[in-house]
Amino acid sequence: MLLNRDPERYSNDVGGVEADTFFTLTAAGIPAVRTRRPHDHRSRTPRWCDAVSEMTAQQGQYTAWLEAPPENLQDTATAEALQASRDLDLTELQATHPPRGVGRD
Fold first, then answer.
1. pLDDT in tens, 87-97
2. Angle at 85 between CA 81 and CA 86, to 5 degrees
3. How far is CA 21 from the centre of its chain?
4. Contact by Cβ (8 Å): 102, 44
5. How many CB atoms lie within 10 A of CB 22?
6. pTM score
7. How far apart are CA 105 and CA 102, in angstroms?
8. CA-based nearest residue to 10, from 24, 1, 20
9. With 0-12 CB in 10 A as exposed, 13-18 as middle and 19+ as buried, what is 82?
């Protein structure tokens, strides 16, 4: 934890504003609460399956958007990117699963 660090020394870091706020609160005796996103502890197989199903769902959404694009979207780089994502063949990814024994399977 960063309790004993000098705030001016670390104020130019990427999280400088957050660090300054933390030092200000702790110097005033107010407990600072930091929250973190929970880490995904699932093994690779379920994460792989979720990622492939998410890509398939997004491909369907992109296809629907490409079939009826707004007039200002036609013949743009966005329309080309939607076309490229629609043309991707995800069937091979859907049939592939990581081997057992990788990670904590």
1. 999 999 888 87
2. 115
3. 26
4. yes
5. 20
6. 0.55
7. 6
8. 20
9. buried
Q: How does DSSP classify residue 13?
A: S
End-to-end CA distance of the chain: 33
Report the C-alpha dihedral over residues 61, 66, 67, 72, rounded to 10 degrees.
130
Report whether 54 contacts 60 (CB < 8 A): no
13, pLDDT greater than 80: no
C-alpha neighbours within 13 Å on the C-beta side of residue 7: 11
pLDDT greater than 60 at residue 14: no
- Choose between 21 and 13: higher pLDDT: 21
- Residue 75, Ramachandran bin (φ over 0: left; ψ between -120 and 50: alpha; else beta): left
Q: Please report, as a single letter, which amino acid is at residue 43.
A: S
For 49-65, what is the HEC assignment? HHHHHHHHHHHHHHHHH
CA distances from 90 to 36, 61, 83, 102 (A): 33, 14, 14, 22
Of 62, 51, 54, 67, give the one whose Cα is nearest residue 85: 62
